[in-house]
Design goal:
Oligomer: single chain
Distance between the termini: 58 Å
Strand content: 15-25%
Radius of gyration: 19 Å
Number of domains: 1
CATH architecture: Alpha-Beta Complex
Shape: globular
CATH topology: tt1808, chain A
Largest sheet: 6 strands, mixed
Order of helices and strands: HEEHEEEEEEHHEEEEEHHH
CATH class: Alpha Beta
Helix content: 25-40%
Number of helices: 7
Length: 231
Amino acid sequence: MSMAAHILPPPPLREGDRLTSDEFMRRWEAMPDLKHAELIDGIVYMPSPASIEHGDHHSHLGAWLANYAAATPGCRSCLEATWLMGDKNVPQPDITLRILPDYGGRSRLKGKYASGGPELITEVAVSSATRDLGSKLKLYESMGVQEYLVAVTSETRFVWKELASKGYQALEPDADGLIRSRCFPGLWLDVAALWRLDLAQMLKVLQVGVATAEHAEFAERLARKTRNSAL
């Protein structure tokens, strides 16, 4: 009998396991049918069934960010990708918006996975609000994620955090009910439209944002960075 016959597969991932990032990924990659799992502060979290409430808000926020990325060179949105964030953390955010490395972005690729921190992360918190606003918020803050958005559906509350010198600070809606990103000029959100699941209104407001001079200047700045890197 060959030695290969004695090699056993790694144990499956289980909720509550305490693992390193490397061991977490080794076990997960041996479970090709498992699509959702996270390692936060060295603890494994497994997925719970996703409600239609989660799916609706996830879809609308994903479309909002995808449309912004489509209008902004060097920006890319992504759903539920795995991120490598050090020895004890492998989160799987609901949605990310990142600036690509060639355009001056902070994150990188490590094999087929994203590494580091994207510029913006969005989570939809239905059953996960405690973790999203606790350990994951602290993780994203420590990784330098510039803006962190959490839709707390049970409270009809939208949390938008901006990274400042003293850590995350809240961005509040302006008098017109819109929250305007500072990291991504032109990324405007009509919070009331989100809670109504009015995607048409969300995108209408977004189009006004990306038509501003501030967005045009941001797009040109990104384009200039990739031109300079090509020299």
